[in-house]
């Protein structure tokens, strides 16, 4: 089956998968459970879900609209169960509009009813008719467009000195300088026809060719002039395609996180969840006004009182500061209400940046705050659930890019002051210099493992989910917290100035609501907001007997006993009420880390009067913990996600790069590894065979070899090893932790881990590479960075182990004679067919003698049927092939492809003989 075709499997699979199979691979936290009324998982179900996840497929039951509760599919004398499933691949998932379990009385099995988009031809035709063309004005940021923009900026003059007038003037200058063009936006049928590289220059060049063709036909010009015009046109198209490919390659290489991977994939698949048209703009307004405690504007706001103050020269905002934050900006982001895009700043001239700095310093000195900077446009984004309910959407606020630059400068200055003064507790890692999610994951993992080493040891962890955390912040209390934590009065007043008045309006498609003022919450989409929330909850650990780990609003509290945890929860309830926050009890989960579950354990966990569910697995900051404190749950989750990403990346690569080996591997390394290597700092010490298998599957696809090709052969052929990279990540993290003082808790956990003799995976990794762990620590203490040495040795060890397996293998025993030290030269060939042909011969697919598991007859030469099919036999011994001079296998299958002609001859001769035999 083509990997881009839609696939749908349905029926009685006689397996119960329980709550596994949730479609939540884009979420960073949660218990990973699928809605279902059958919670039981049996052996058949376990095999079924492993098969589904290995192929990157999805279960419709309990995941798709129409079956939100996961209805039972079998009702009989043995009870009520879910054993009938509908399974789809990613391409089919997009086409399925609804899934539900129907009603039937003549069978114990209930029918599975699936509504598929585009199956009704009449409806499809109507849909195409509704696709209207419309003209829109877009801003041009091509090479020519940027040059024109900068030229116009150089000619512009800046005269105004008042803040409001300066903002208006700067906006108008940018608007006039930006090159624009009118384009026709069509529906899906006509969209992307030229794959993003076709532009006005191509169009003009094509018109010239058509004109030359007509002139030649009418004998008005020479044939040579027509051919020259045609050559220029083709050359231009090739150049545009090349530029497009280079842009794509650069964008892919810059991908770092799983979120960026899915954003890219969804954009390439043109996947976009539409906002329900059944929700009116008035309903959207009411929902967001209630959420943000907004109120309708009653009239034009009065002029803000200016409090101009003297600012020390060395504290003024500098061109270097603003320039640094401009370099952090990303292209193709939606602008705020003023329409000024990030590109306007990125491609701006020095004069324009200096003018912006002048404006910022006016605001910094207290000369006024631009009204434009107070405005935000709220756009609803669907989360999950019923699409016609506003609460199932989250709002993203588009702020003016000029304001975001100013807020970024403010945020950086505040972070610097926070670190200098030690404002935040050690347990809060969110958005701090030198800190990341892996720090908290490492700490929690170590604490749990440490407790479980003790006899009867347990650790209790409550993973807290705040409902609309940023939107619930009490602004007055937030300013109080900033002052109490020691933030300088000047910075506090600058933040107060921002929140003195904030205005929003809702925009859905072409529809817009009215402006309303908001009095609650921090601004979504503002660079300052995560830091402000972090300060707001920074005092949580100062309560009596509460110990937490937090990354912004992702919080977990831990305790060694049930009594301690319940006391912490009571204290935390008071804290949440005091801060006017709200806990989402449905998403808040309790996990008890222990080696074994105690018999008759019936502890009930409650938040106020609502029951909290105890789970055996939970995803915290993207890492899946289990109650045994092992890495198995995380590795399984990584493999599940990786299988899904591999399928998507393969389809995009086929369309974009075709069979180019280098670029296909670049896509794998940039996109798949962003998912694969997440938190490898925790699990990377040990070789994870499931992880290697996913890579091996992709390598087989790229090489074009059979599924039976052993993984160690395809990894040797492509010179790839996940184990080495994962181990390097783990070693590099410890190198970094050893020389850090930013986080006292993290450093203490690392020191304890070094003392633990039962850290088997870590110890094995060191010994595998020729060191004892104590020796590694001694060298680190001497100032040596061990990650490079360990990974280099691991690379050599991995190569030796791989080649040992090749020597001892029953499949393709002679492959060792073809092994190269570097990636084989033939993989750089332009011809995909030749490259795959060589890979099949080198990896043993074209020798039936390698199939030791089949009958003797099936191992015979497909041409002469007289001897076993080997390279040597086909080269000299087969009567159907012309006799050749004797050569060694290594020379026949040399990496440079010198005998590709012979390989083609073998394929053609086989094909001819098979046709002749078929006609007998």
UniProtKB/TrEMBL annotation:
Coiled-coil stretches: 146-180, 230-260
InterPro entries in the record: DNA/RNA_pol_sf, Endo/exonu/phosph_ase_sf, Endo/exonuclease/phosphatase, Rev_trsase/Diguanyl_cyclase, RT_dom
Keywords: Coiled coil
UniProt GO molecular function: catalytic activity
Presence of keyword Transmembrane: no
GO terms of biological process kind: DNA biosynthetic process
Gene3D superfamilies: 3.30.70.270, Endonuclease/exonuclease/phosphatase
SUPFAM superfamilies from the UniProt entry: DNA/RNA polymerases (SSF56672), DNase I-like (SSF56219)
Domain Reverse transcriptase: 362-625
Protein name: Reverse transcriptase domain-containing protein
Phylogenetic placement of the source organism: Eukaryota, Metazoa, Ecdysozoa, Arthropoda, Hexapoda
